[in-house]
Amino acid sequence: MKYEPVIGLEIHIQLKTKSKMFCACDNTGEDKEPNTTICPICTGQPGTLPVINNQAIDWAILIGMVLNGKIAKFSKFDRKNYFYPDLPKGYQISQYDLPIVSGGYLEINNRKIKLERIHLEEDAAKLIHKKNSTLIDFNRAGTPLLEIVTKPEIKTPQEAKLFLQELRLIMRYQGVSCADMEKGHLRCDANISLRPIGGKKLYPKIEIKNLNSFKAVERALEYEIKRQAKLWEENKAPKEQETRGWDDAKGVTIEQRTKEEASDYRYFPEPDLPPLKIGEERINKIKRMKRETPQAKRKRFAEEYEFNSEESKALTDDRDLSYYAEQVISELRTWLLTLGLEGTEEEIWKENKRKLVKLVANWIINRLNKIVDESDSLIKEIKITPARFAKFISLIYQNKITSNLAQRILEKMFKTGSDPEHIIEEDDLTQMSDEKSLQETLKKIIKSNPKVVEDYKKGKANALQFLVGQAMKETKGKMDARQIVNLLKEIL
Ligand code: ZN
Ligand code: MN
Question: Which residues place a Cβ less than 5 A from the ion ligand 2?
Answer without folding.
Answer: 147
